[in-house]
Amino acid sequence: MQEITHYINGAMTKGTSGRFSEVFNPATGEVQAQVPLATVEEVNAAVEKAAEAQVAWGATNPQRRARVMMKFGALINEHMDELAELVSREHGKTLPDARGDVQRGLEVVEVCMGAPHMLKGEFTDNGGPGIDLYSMRQPLGVVAGITPFNFPAMIPLWKMAPALASGNAMILKPSERCPSTAMRLAELLKEAGLPDGVLQVVHGDKEAVDAILDNETVQAVGFVGSTPIAQYIYGRAASNGKRAQCFGGAKNHMIIMPDADLDKAADALVGAGYGAAGERCMAISVAVPVGEETADALIEKLTPRVEKLKVGPYTAGEDVDYGPVITAAAKERIERLIASGVSEGADLLIDGRGFELQGYENGYFVGPSLFDRVTPDMEIYKEEIFGPVLSTVRAGSYEEALKITMDNPYGNGTAIYTADGDTARDFAHRVNVGMVGINFPIPVPLSYHTFGGWKKSAFGDLNQYGPDAFRFYTKTKTVTARWFSGIKDGGEFNFKAMD
């Protein structure tokens, strides 16, 4: 049995709590490792060491810190396949999807190679008589990242790269379900030149999370996970005087207009709805066709596409469309929600319950499910299913479709498929959702923009990566300077008589 360790002061460090969490292979249901769950004392000790290491790191020239990011990016590229397999082994993603997980994190690292530019302050010359004003961005000190199971590489990289490039030390608490990728990234950062102690990887459950939130040295917390936990972490962090950016759940809608290319829309829905077994906060889980004719035609195109999806373990080849969900409990919850949709009157066109794969009968596989005629009062609409289930909510008009989307309490991502520029522009301007796709199903912004939802999908004022990340991980100091006039005529060679 493999025993995963913490990563403290640049070394693999065994836990001392005596408590462990099991790490499963989602494809087989077998326990493949155990990971230690840190105590409050272990978390506080890690923070103390990080604070010591941060002093020199924060004083390091920003360009030298950027060079560590350059080397780190090169090492991620060099070890891409190894990192992807770590992701697949513990999460269950297909290898192409796992490589995408690593790649989207790497892109944020690449932006952080330009951190010196992002960290520049401002200057006002002669703001008053002989007075100059300038501001500088300085690191916060020790910050923390609490990251989810569904992107074991991408989201830790979204957190650590801008935090470290800004001169902070970071306590990273990855998901105990998928801990190995974060550990390998920490090793690669050390190889890239990051000083020991600047990044600490501490595993744990609620006890460790609360220790991070209550530790006075930790100045900021970034979190991604479910909405109830995001709200809890935001509230506790804020009450303790910390900055917090906490990203929660989602219920992402795609509106399909009558003038849309339905083949392209159907292809987009299948990829966005079922990719990664639906375990993405940006997955499209609700299709909103406008008009009965559009809805009927869309369902006709979706059904054969969904029926052809290939479900299996990542080891079955790169033509597998998606793998298992993360745990037995997740599988049970998804199948319960499918049953509730049937009992509440939705039309279940494709039923993914009871899916079995020869040789993997104990794996956490759920077949693709497709619902039609779902209504907003149903549990399958209200809940974030986080599984391979696509619901179709029919709308009679564009305004009704827009209202359905806007009335939903979540506001992470949304999309519209249309051939009409005026409709697309109106949608982008009016919809109360943080990330919008036009003929683009999963509108995750490129790494030099910024990622963040609205409403119950996000808590906090600043988004992830891009310019907002550097604002979040630094504090601004403004200096007002005046120099009084002195000797301007050069040196004097005689003694001056006393007054």
From TrEMBL:
Keywords: NAD, Oxidoreductase. This is methylmalonate-semialdehyde dehydrogenase (CoA acylating). It holds the Pfam family Aldedh. One of its GO terms (molecular function) is methylmalonate-semialdehyde dehydrogenase (acylating, NAD) activity. GO terms for biological process: L-valine catabolic process; thymine catabolic process. PANTHER family: MALONATE-SEMIALDEHYDE DEHYDROGENASE. Residues 15-479 form the Aldehyde dehydrogenase domain. It comes from the Bacteria. SUPFAM superfamilies: ALDH-like. The lineage of its organism: Bacteria, Pseudomonadati, Pseudomonadota, Alphaproteobacteria, Rhodobacterales. InterPro entries: Ald_DH/histidinol_DH (IPR016161), Ald_DH_C (IPR016163), Ald_DH_CS_CYS (IPR016160), Ald_DH_N (IPR016162), Aldehyde_DH_dom (IPR015590), MeMal-semiAld_DH (IPR010061). Its EC number is 1.2.1.27.
